[in-house]
Design goal:
The chain contains ten helices and 15 strands. The protein has helices at residues 11-23, 39-43, 76-81, 83-104, 137-155, 183-194, 212-224, 247-262, 288-291, 301-315, and strands spanning 2-6, 26-31, 46-49, 67-70, 108-112, 125-126, 159-165, 167-169, 196-198, 206-207, 209-211, 235-239, 245-246, 267-269, 284-285. A seven-stranded parallel β-sheet has the order 3-2-1-4-5-7-12, with helices on both faces. It has a two-stranded parallel ribbon with strand order 6-15. It has a two-stranded parallel ribbon with strand order 8-11. β1, α1 and β2 (26-31) form a beta-alpha-beta unit. α1 crosses α7 (212-224). The two termini are 38 Å apart. The relative contact order is 0.14.
Length: 317
């Protein structure tokens, strides 16, 4: 199978590209640019540089491709900093790429959406029929990208898939990856540098945390599935780990693991009175549709945190 990975030098995309290459698939990467630590990998691979927001840059990149995994996007912080650019990249950039994929006769287009299209979820049971109510620019623009998947699924022979992973974490392929805004990754790096994990809130919010390896496993599952649902409709899948932990619980777990890995105590610091703030009700992030295709998360949270802590230690922070 010939696979195009957009954002294939980024945090998630690099893991996706590496996994499909390990499987023996022919991988092409599309990205904006490369960092110095990626130069050797780029020299040995099929990498095309360009801009999702400029359709002319996308000419020919989907020719001969069977599967597109669209991982290129602005993250939550970048979207908040420049909402107009967020629309151009996450929404219109998705439209530009899926249009080229449909035009080239690509069989399947896997769009990396996010749990954040649903908005605030305290106490909710969330399957794919739960109404999206995004509460951030990131969530809004990722949901708009899903809309374009629906448009092109209806208008062409392309099989479009929208995958909504839970909150991610894990070590990157490349040290230059922009991944330290993610809660678990940030906890591990801050613990190494300061001996503390500082919470800016009581940490009572509940989240499902999905290791990057399991996100890649979810992508493989929808990429390989023979059937994905009704013709002319983009299939939507949640991808989670089945967890409902508070930020405070995860911070404490990270402190324990980092203390073991770094060989020194790590403490969690929260605002005064945090212990008196009740935890949010549990969130049940359902991924039954994906499980029916054979997906099962395999990464233990503590082991996943350890892998991040060990990576941070290998970099010297």
């Amino acid at each position: 199978m010939r696979v195009l990975v957009s954002g294939g030098l980024g945090y998630l995309g690099a893991h996706v590209a590496r996994r499909f290459e390990e499987r023996g698939d022919a991988v092409r990467v599309f990205d904006r640019s490369a960092h110095e630590d990626q130069a050797g990998w780029v020299a040995d691979h099929d990498v095309i540089f360009g801009d999702l927001t400029a359709p002319a840059w996308l000419a020919g990149i989907c020719e001969g491709v069977d599967l597109v995994v669209h991982a290129a996007a602005l993250n939550q912080q970048a979207c908040a900093a420049d909402p107009q650019l967020a629309v151009r990249v996450n929404a219109l950039g998705t439209r530009n790429l899926i249009a080229k994929a449909a035009e080239a006769g690509v069989r399947r287009f896997v769009y990396l959406s996010t749990i954040h299209v649903y908005g605030r979820l305290a106490g909710a049971t969330v399957d794919e029929t739960y109404p999206p109510r995004p509460a951030t620019d990131y969530g809004v623009t990722k949901l708009a990208g899903e809309g374009y998947c629906q448009v092109f699924a209806a208008a062409s022979a392309l099989q479009a898939v929208c995958l909504r992973p839970a909150n991610g974490f894990g070590p990157p392929v490349f040290a230059s990856a922009d991944c330290w805004m993610l809660a678990v990754n940030d906890f591990c790096r801050t613990a190494y540098r300061t001996g503390e994990i500082v919470l800016n809130s009581p940490g009572n919010q509940r989240r499902d945390f999905l290791a990057l390896a399991d996100t890649v496993r979810a992508i493989e599952t929808v990429a390989d599935a023979p059937e994905l649902g009704a013709v002319g409709v983009a299939a939507v899948f949640n991808a989670g780990a089945g967890l409902s932990l508070t930020i405070r619980e995860v911070a404490r777990m990270a402190a324990e693991v980092c203390g073991e890995v770094y060989g020194r105590p790590v403490r969690v610091v929260a605002p005064p009175g945090s212990e008196n703030v009740p935890d949010d009700p549990a969130v049940d992030y359902r991924f039954d549709r994906l499980a029916a295709l054979g997906y099962e998360p395999a990464t233990d949270l503590r082991a996943g945190i350890r892998s991040v802590a060990e990576y941070v230690a290998s970099l010297g922070g």
